[in-house]
Design a protein that fits this description.
6-stranded mixed beta sheet; 6 strands; alpha/beta; binds flavin mononucleotide
Length: about 150
């Protein structure tokens, strides 16, 4: 099973998480490769597309949304979405808000089957080790589920 990880990042944290996801998948025997949206990767032969963006000014990065739209909403694909944001750090309301608004904005243009969507704690300066570990474990779990359902 081939897993394609596609991301965009401004300050590097989403890129770091995308690369950690790739490593975790490879360590667990999956064929995984990472691209930035700017590289405009071909996703036709990907069995699972894991796509990630940070949230800036209440929105996913526009180039990520554009990528999804340009790839026909990833129609016919299994898709796992992740975002990096800060709002969920602000208690229960922040978490609900993040999940409802930010994840919805990311999922709206997707016409494929969203198998999982997760919001991780982003960071500004010091990398969040917990996010890196959690994201890797999440991706492996999602890939295993997809493989099991083949
Ligand atoms: C200028 C700026 C605006 C941001 N706006 C939001 C926001 O509206 N909501 C949120 O939850 N996080 C917000 N964040 C937090 C980022 O999503 C978080 O720092 C993320 O890890 C950045 O990802 P990157 O390093 O891949 O660019 C903002 C961060 C910056 C620097």
């Amino acid at each position: 099973m081939r897993v394609c990880i596609v991301y965009e990042s401004r300050r590097g944290s989403t890129e770091m998480v995308a690369r950690a996801i790739e490593k975790a998948l490879r360590d667990n025997g999956f064929d995984a490769q990472t691209w930035s949206v700017g590289q405009n990767p071909e996703v036709d032969d990907c069995d699972l597309v894991i796509i990630g963006t940070p949230i800036y000014y209440e929105r996913p990065l526009p180039q990520v949304v554009r990528f999804i739209e340009e790839k026909s909403g990833l129609e016919g694909k299994r898709v796992a979405v992740f975002i990096l944001a800060m709002a969920q750090k602000f208690g229960k309301l922040g978490k609900e808000y993040t999940e409802r608004r930010y994840l919805r904005l990311m999922m709206e243009p997707i016409k494929g089957r969203v198998v999982s969507a997760r919001a991780f704690d982003g960071w500004l300066f010091r990398e969040n080790e917990a996010t890196i570990v959690e994201a890797g474990a999440w991706a492996v779990e999602v890939a295993r589920l997809c493989k099991g359902g083949e």
